[in-house]
Write a structure and sequence with these properties.
This protein is α+β, with helices and mostly antiparallel strands and 148 residues long. Helices cover 30% and strands 21% of the residues. A hairpin with an 8-residue loop joins β5 and β6 (115-119). The chain is globular.
Length: 148
């Protein structure tokens, strides 16, 4: 799949979402009627390494990472535990190859917040990712209601 297909899926299927380009990423935010300054994160797509985020080696040709924020209880069900926050410029202490393609794994930096990721998902893997994107969407709507 191409990253734009994932973004388009979100915009077409998750009501009240917007696309925001910032910090070298493309993000899908829940922000109905643009009532908040930015909105609530649902997912981001990152296509290059950043100063403090090199764990996935995104500078390889045609590599991108989908990042999705899920609830911590779901993260624990998937991966067994929430890791400690890594030091600046480091990755979380978990036994995963954060450069692997087409696998749903913890986010190399933000796993401590309940974020997961997948590098270059295939259509088959994206079908599994859709359930987690839907959870992130529902979670974002809940956070939005609390902010309003």
């Amino acid at each position: 799949m191409k990253s734009d297909e994932i973004l388009q899926y979100c915009l077409e299927n998750l009501e009240g979402t917007i696309l925001v380009n910032s910090w070298g990423e493309k993000g899908i935010f829940y922000n109905p009627n643009n009532t908040l300054k930015r909105g609530i994160y649902i997912l981001t797509i990152k296509e290059k390494d950043g100063e403090n985020d090199k764990g996935s080696n995104l500078d390889r040709e045609n590599i991108y990472r989908v990042n999705v924020g899920i609830q911590k209880k779901t993260f624990i069900n998937l991966f067994g535990e929430i890791p400690n926050r890594p030091s600046k410029g480091c990755i979380v202490d978990m036994e995963y190859d954060f450069t692997s393609i087409d696998k749903i794994i913890p986010h190399p930096i933000y796993a401590w917040m309940g974020w997961i990721c997948c590098l270059n998902p295939t259509k088959k893997t994206f079908e599994k990712l859709k359930l987690l994107i839907q959870e992130s969407y529902e979670y974002a709507k809940e956070k939005y209601r609390k902010r309003k």
